[in-house]
Specification:
about 130 residues; alpha/beta; three-stranded mixed sheet; 5 helices; about 30% helix; about 15% strand
């Protein structure tokens, strides 16, 4: 599906061989530190909003650093997790994915507008 929008998934070997300056256009790669994270390049020019998987909610757009809280916690399937500052929902949906839809994820958000964003995000991701 990435090819439909002109994105090319390159592996680490190809990237090293070609060098960063040759990865123009809509290149993307799997991140070397975060499992299942796709890095789109060049930053700000990859137009990932056109990727159908983003529109369907199958890909969550977020900064790499935002993945670390869920990875550090590493909740196993069946765990009970409390997310005390949940909106807009990327971290919460990442936690739900790590839990493989098993267990209990309690998501809290004080601001009503942000809470509505959270509900929408989690519904789109199938995490409710």
């Amino acid at each position: 599906e990435l090819a439909e929008t002109g994105h090319v998934l390159v592996d680490g070997h190809m990237q090293r061989r070609l060098g960063q300056r040759h990865l123009h256009g809509r290149a993307c790669k799997l991140d070397m530190h975060v499992p299942d994270l796709i890095v789109f390049q060049p930053k700000g020019k990859s137009d990932i909003s056109r990727v159908p998987m983003v529109a369907r909610g199958e890909l969550v757009v977020q900064q790499k650093a935002s993945c670390f809280p869920a990875l550090a916690l590493a909740p196993p399937p069946g765990a009970t997790v409390i997310d005390g500052c949940s909106a807009p929902g990327q971290k919460t949906s990442h936690l739900a994915a790590l839990m493989e839809g098993q267990g209990r994820l309690l998501a809290f958000e004080q601001d009503e507008r942000r809470f509505m964003l959270l509900k929408q995000m989690l519904k789109q991701k199938g995490a409710v």
